[in-house]
Amino acid sequence: EAFSVVSKLLSQCKLDLLEELVSAEVLQVLKEKLSLLPDNHRDALAADIDAIMYTTEGDVRIYYDDDGMKFVSILMRFWYLNGANLPDEVPGETKVFQIVFGDESTKEKRHLLTANYEFQREFTEGAKPDWTITRIEHPRLLE
């Protein structure tokens, strides 16, 4: 659900609403990248929760910083359908998969897109149980 909410806010360039969810470093990078993004690529960032086809964990890490604070980091990979008006080939010459719904007269083209979001939480005793997104990647869209 967090992926869907964050991706929609990204596509709408509502970065101020992401301040509690996304690290400051990632927000700064996103601000720069979103300002250069074409509208159709920005539209393609949005993932409706019902359009998420598959999710998987890419990497799970537990680590301690120099002060002995304990953290958990989980990289999640998402595959989602999006109806943005994207060309068949996007920058980087990577094929975007297309899925057509309906018959010839009412067909609706959707692209199968991927995204990687890394979630981090401090697990030191007494720390707030809040997750923060420390990496956002939408390959071939948000580069």
**What number of domains?**
1
What is the structural class?
alpha+beta
- Average pLDDT, rounded to a whole number, is 87
Number of helices: 3
The span between the termini is 23 Å
- Strand tally is 7
Question: What's the multimeric state?
Answer: single chain
Q: How would the global form be characterised?
A: elongated
Radius of gyration: 17 Å
Structure characterization notes:
It contains three helices and seven strands; from the N terminus they run H-H-H-E-E-E-E-E-E-E. The protein has one domain (1-137). The longest helix is centred in the first third of the chain and has 13 residues, at 24-36. Strands 1, 2, 5, 6 and 7 form a five-stranded antiparallel sheet that branches. The protein has a two-stranded antiparallel ribbon with strand order 3-4. It has 143 residues and is an alpha+beta fold.
Q: Could you write a compact summary of the structure shown?
A:
The protein is 20% helix and 40% strand. It is of the alpha+beta class and 143 residues long.
